[in-house]
Amino acid sequence: MTDQMTDQTTGQTTGSPEDDDRAAIRDLARRLVATTFPPARARGVAEKGGAPDADLDRELAAAGLTGLEIAEKYGGGGGSFTELAVVLEVLGEHVGASTLLSSAVLCSGALSLAGTEAQRERWLPLLAAGTVSGTAALGEWLGGRDRVVATRTDGAWTLNGRAGNVLDARAGRLLLIPACTPDGWLVALVEPSVPGLTITPQAQTDETRCLDEITLGAVGVSDADVLAVDGADTADATRLLGALANRAAAAVAADSVGNARRVLDMTVGYVQQRRQFNRPVGSFQAVKHQAADMLVNLETSAALVDEAARAVAHDPSSCDLAVSLAKDHACELAARNAGTALQLHGGIGYTWEHDLHLYLKRALLNEFLFGEPRWHRDRVLRGLLADDGLPGPS
Amino acid sequence: MSSLETVRTRVRLAPGPTAATRGRGTRRETVMPGEHAQQIPLDELRTRLRQWCAEHVPHDWRRQQTGAGHQEYVRFQHWWFDELRAAGYAVPHWPAAWGGGFDLARQAVIFEELARADAPRLSLHFVSLHHAAGTFLGAGTPEQRDRYLTGILEGAVWCQGFSEPEAGSDLASLRTRAERRGDVYVVNGQKIWASGAAYAQHCLLLVRTDPAAPKRRGISYLVLDMDSPGVLVRPTRQITGEEHFCEIFLTDVEIPVGNLIGAENDGWRVAQSTLASERGGTMIELAERLAVGLGWLLGEVNGAGGKPTAGTVAGDRLARLAREVQALRLLVRQVITRPSAELAQGAHASVVKLYYSELLQRLTGFGMELAGLDGQRATRRPLSSGWESGTWLLDHIGSWEWTIPGGTSEIQRNIIAERALGLPREPAV
Ligand SMILES: Cc1cc2nc3c(=O)[nH]c(=O)nc-3n(C[C@H](O)[C@H](O)[C@H](O)COP(=O)(O)OP(=O)(O)OC[C@H]3O[C@@H](n4cnc5c(N)ncnc54)[C@H](O)[C@@H]3O)c2cc1C
Q1: CATH second-level architecture of A237-387?
Q2: Do A392 and B327 touch (CB under 8 A)?
Q3: Which of A306, A357, B230, B380 has its CA 20 to 30 A from that of A300?
Q4: Which active-site residues of B does the annotation give?
């Protein structure tokens, strides 16, 4: 029942070619993730203490989904962010412990946006093939407290400081480290083996994702490994970081939409089958109405996230408002839906054995990952003030 | 009969529309966009609308309509309808043959621009343009369509006589009885909450023709002429102080059998076309009006205490409302961008209605909070406006006008849970 239901909400067969492509990608991703990464495996990952799941990443790469957005000349699929968002949503449906967000959305995205030809040629084919994964440390940019400082000595940069909550750093062979300079920002390409760099895995309550801390003690970066840097009158690095933050926030919002979709399916299935007082608990209106609200939350989130993904893909320089509206809404409501689902499952939902906690914990993490609610709301308010209200529909 | 006359003269101050009294003779040559309207590029249509609104929306209509009497309200509504009709914007959602023919995307442009120009709403004609038209287009004979749609274009006002004192959410339990005698139905019973009935020339009437049949199968759908003998209309004062909805008492009222819409005892099905008509373009306009309202709130917060920021109560509320209004705008546009089958698993209309009405309640409630104690002073609402009276308190109180009729929020949640999610149905009685 759940599959059919899900398909209807997400636009399996619509008129436009873009929608048809997205539907095909969704089908493919669903089949692949469901077989490679069943729920038992999600719990297994947690118990082994070790996301990301290498098998899942291998399968995604082999199917061409990791490189979906990378240009064809670097071995990618030449697709758009709206397609990548579909895969992210499917991973959300399965609490997939994959590096797609860190590696494809952040690392490959940054190289495609700002890399020199040499940097792209060196890294993008490896990233597309999944032989290498990478990530970016966006915490400081997104209002975090950690600092990395870059100083210029002898024609090269030196990085010192700390970056916490970096997604999948432990799995990355390429780290994008933003650092403050006297003129603004610098984004450096750093390999984890470089002297002076340590990665300390953080323990997270959501065990399907891993966040790590990176410390840098006099890490040297040559100009060839600078991805972008602000000058006295230029803001290349600032622009890049802004674009990456939008990609990350839209991606995590898509994950939350997938999360909410699966949580609703699980809940509807459960309340139909669980009987008390001689009838399915799903026949009680108090239960039905909460389920109806979950659907409304899901539908409004999906609408905003679709729009945000489109804006990131087609209008990257002015997508801040669309992204923050979607991130704040979808992530908050997915967490709320997961809480409602827990309530409607009763005691069984409160067990470690049931899958629900994987979804609840991930939805809760998503609410704070890549911009806490406050950061996004401030951006929404600034956007509203600048435009004198919500911008007109396109 | 004399009480009928009293009630009529009290509320029916406006004469029924006739060519002579409304000066239609000179207006025959008005724009009927028809098929060519479909071809206008969206941008051009938007520019045209913007210019038209700038030239035609009276800048002081709110002031004029505040404290206006019934007569002034009715006169103004007919005048505004004529203006829109002459420009070709009164019935964009109707088929081309009837002066519409705009696709949904173009309807959206028209409704958006009217909303952004803060144009008056056609509240007097609302049932005529949507419910009545939707019914005849969905279930009327060609003759009925011809007669009644023409009448509506000439300004005829309709009301909807569905609810009864004992039949609200459980509409199918209605009791107003119609017995066939020769070529008339003889109708006895009572309707309640019929919006605008005191101004109406016609009423969409649901009656029971077969009391023995299961409750949905014994209902028929009739057109009632409001000046028929035996019809008594009594306005009910509403929570907002106005008298807009009415009781309708029916005593041995004779309705010609030719006024039957659809087949006898098939009225429940016909009523679905009536209820389905409040969708599409109308919802787009309502969503746009909310976006305008959000802009007002932003201005109020910004003006009062400096720039709103997250972490303050007002800033957080505004940011939340912004994402909700934007979500609603995107949801209503899905009707244009996606095939209907996939929309919210078949419960799209219910999702939109529920979300809109409750969002309106939150948004106006926030406005009321901003206004504080001073906002509690008595004010009057300008007629011809939607919820946007200019007074958040009245707007907030008026927001229940959306969560109660047209299927209450509770009924919408039942529909969503049952239709979209497949949960067990409520006990059918
Ligand atoms: C401003 C306004 C304008 C109106 N205009 C018109 C009009 O023009 N024509 C017309 O015919 N009618 C009109 N109505 C009537 C409107 O359609 C009814 O008020 C509405 O259908 C609810 O019926 P009721 O008032 O009898 O409430 P009830 O049905 O008695 O409901 C009372 C409460 O019980 C709840 N309830 C009822 N059944 C269920 C259930 N199965 N599950 C859960 N909760 C339930 C309701 O949600 C509500 O909260 C109008 C009403 C208003 C307020």
Answers
A1: Up-down Bundle (1.20)
A2: no
A3: A357
A4: 278
Nearest to A288 among B298, B309, B423 (CB): B423
- The rounded percent of chain A whose pLDDT value lies above 90 is 86
- The ligand 1 atom at the shortest distance from the C-alpha of residue B426 is 41
Q: Output the pTM of the full model.
A: 0.89
Question: Taking phi first (over 0 means left), then psi (-120 to 50 degrees means alpha), and beta for anything else, what does residue B330 get?
Answer: alpha
User: Is A228 strand, coil or helix?
Assistant: strand
Q: Do B60 and B181 fall into the same domain?
A: no
B411 and B295 belong to one structural domain: yes
Nearby residues of A29 by Cβ (< 8 Å), 6 or more positions away? A60, A63, A65, A86, A87, A90, A91
Best residue in A6, A271, A279, A381 for a mutation probing chain B (most B CBs within 10 Å): A381
Q: What are phi and psi of B427, to 5 degrees?
A: -55, 125
User: Which residues, 6+ apart, have CB-to-CB distance to B415 below 8 Å?
Assistant: B347, B350, B407
Q: Quote the CA–CA distance of B92 and B85 in Å, as a whole number.
A: 10
Q: List B residues 69-128 in contact with A (Cβ-Cβ < 8 A).
A: 108, 112, 116
Element (H, E) at A331: helix A320-345
CATH H superfamily, domain A2-133: Acyl-CoA dehydrogenase/oxidase, N-terminal domain (1.10.540.10)
Count the residues in chain A.
394
Mapping DSSP to helix (H, G, I), strand (E, B) and coil, where does residue A192 land? Answer: coil
How far is it, in rounded angstroms, from Cα A162 to Cα B359?
43
Task: Decide if B428 touches A, using CB distance below 8 A.
Answer: no
Query: Which atom of ligand 1 is found nearest the CA of B409?
Result: 47
Contact, A175 vs A135, CB < 8 A? yes
Residues pairing with B191 in the sheet: B248
Beta strand B158-161 pairing with B202-208: parallel
Phi, psi of B262 (to 5 degrees): 75, -170
Decide which of A101 and A207 is more confident.
A101
Total domains present in chain B: 3
The residue contributing the CA closest to ligand 1 atom 9 is B194
Nearest by CB to A9, from B329, B344, B418: name it: B344
* Interval B3-21: pLDDT, tens: 333 333 333 333 333 333 3
How many Å apart are CA A308 and CA A321, to the nearest integer?
9
- Per-residue pLDDT tens over the stretch B255-290: 999 999 999 999 999 998 888 877 766 788 899 899
pLDDT digits (tens, 9 = 90+) for A170-182: 999 999 999 999 9
The pLDDT assigned to A224 comes to 97
Those residues whose C-beta lies under 8 Å from the C-beta of residue B163, and which sit 6 or more positions away, are: B171, B191, B192, B193, B194
Q: Which residues of B316-347 are buried (b: 16+ CB within 10 A; e: fewer)?
A: bbbbbbbbbbbbbbbbbbbbebbeeebbbbeb
**Would you say A83 and A69 are in contact if contact means Cβ atoms under 8 Å apart?**
yes
Do B260 and B383 fall within a single domain? no
